Structure formats: structure tokens, C-alpha cells
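Figure 3 (text version): C-alpha cells given as input.
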């Protein structure tokens, strides 16, 4: 098993990322910050995860917001 020293998301699951962002911003603010439908219409953790796993550009935006929000902590 190799360690990823330069990967700030190493060991953090997508579910953990989405849950922390929802806890910090709430669904409404998250939908404003990242304009994707899974945050607007009937948002849930499971539906968001399903969409983000299939859509690389959206996942990248979510990961970037996570890093911008929590990297300084």
C-alpha cells in the first residue's frame, strides 16, 4: 500500500466530503455554490453520491469546495 503524501483528500471518502459540506453550508447554500441539480431538487446524500460518482466534473467541483473550505483548518 502506497501513501499519497501530496493528496490532501487521501483517506477521505466522497460520502464524508458531501456530509461535511451539507453540515457546513446546508443544501440551499451548497446549491448556490455548486450549481448542480442533485443539490437543488430533492437533495439527499445518496442521490448526490450517485450523481457525483458518475460525473467527474461535478465531483471535482465538490472536492475543490471541500478543500477550499477545510484545508485551512
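Below: residues designed for each position.
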Amino acid at each position: 500500500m502506497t501513501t499519497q503524501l501530496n493528496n490532501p483528500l487521501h483517506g477521505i471518502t466522497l460520502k464524508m466530503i458531501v456530509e461535511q459540506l451539507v453540515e457546513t453550508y446546508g443544501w440551499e447554500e451548497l446549491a448556490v455554490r455548486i450549481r448542480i441539480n442533485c443539490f437543488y431538487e430533492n437533495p439527499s446524500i445518496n442521490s448526490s453520491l450517485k450523481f457525483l460518482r458518475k460525473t467527474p466534473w461535478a465531483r471535482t467541483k465538490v472536492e475543490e469546495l471541500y478543500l477550499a473550505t477545510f484545508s485551512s483548518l
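The helical segments are 14-33, 37-40, 45-54, 56-70.
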